[in-house]
Amino acid sequence: MYSLDLKTEDPPGFPMSDKTFALLRDFLQPDSTLTLEFTARSIEDFLPAKALLSEEISDFGESCIEVAEQIPYHHISQLKLAGLLEYLANSPKLGQQYDSKDITNQYVRYQRLGESLRESLNGPDEEKPRNYVNFHAFAANLFERRIFSTSPTWAIWAQRNAHEGRNASRGVEGVPDEIYVLSGAQWIFWYGQTFFKQVIFPGEVSDRELGMWSPGPLYDGKAHLTLDRWHFWRDGYRAVASSGKEEEKGYSQECRSVAAKATALMDALEKNMTF
């Protein structure tokens, strides 16, 4: 696997942040000799104690996203980065326990990182649209490792943007459709089995969640995670995979290959997880 040329465009200004970025950059190289434990403990030492909402903690999350967006979605270092954050997840410097109206002793991890991820989810950068694909691979790996909620909402949104017609507020002018197809496929690759379990048994879904799961204009089914909707997305990937360069949207060979893999994986998950 090839090495990565990871850079930071806007040095955050905190000496700790510069050290963290340098450590992440070195650890994420395929031939790095830095161990997971050493890297995690070193990063934890850089972080301030009892300052979960501090600018330093926020900047750590931003650094992780900036790095992840530069790592190709298929590169092994996406898995290394997700594993590192999983290892760090129980650090008292990055999480806290609290009681809410309905839940007691709930442990919340990476509040600042979660906020930054949600902001990055809004849409691709017109100048660097490929970063959005890598971002979705990163997010899917974090959700698969249960670092955040197990809700399938983000995965549903990615499929909706890819196949159901993007909401006008989410589409970015100048960004080709294949960026959304490639982004949606990341949730099939890295979160697919968990995703399909929720198709089989979505559990109790609140009205608020159903509202967020509303379909795009091309899908006339219910605002729910159903097998019918799964089939609609699968057929969308299949259509991309079988399209030709001469067609209007002009999907690249890479996109058509990724779509074919997503189609095969969705079929395999359904075939082997239903009895």
Mean pLDDT: 87
H and E string:
HHHHEEHHHHHHH
**Largest beta sheet: what is the strand line-up?**
1-2
How does the overall form come out from the CA principal axes? Answer: globular
Q: Provide the helix percentage.
A: 55-70%
Distance between the termini: 38 Å
- Count up the helices: 11
How would you describe this protein?
The structure is a single chain. With 275 residues, the chain is mostly helical. It is 57% helix and 3% strand. The chain contains 11 helices and 2 strands; from the N terminus they run ααααββααααααα. α10 runs antiparallel to α11 (253-273).
In short:
The protein has a two-stranded antiparallel ribbon with strand order 1-2. The protein has 275 residues and is mainly α.
Task: Give the SSE map.
Blueprint: H1 15-27, H2 36-46, H3 55-70, H4 76-88, E1 95-98, E2 106-109, H5 111-120, H6 130-144, H7 153-164, H8 177-200, H9 207-212, H10 227-241, H11 253-273
Helix pairs in contact: 1-2, 1-3, 2-4, 3-5, 3-6, 4-6, 6-8, 7-8, 7-10, 8-10, 8-11, 10-11
Which characteristics define this entry?
single chain, mainly alpha, two-stranded antiparallel sheet, 275 residues
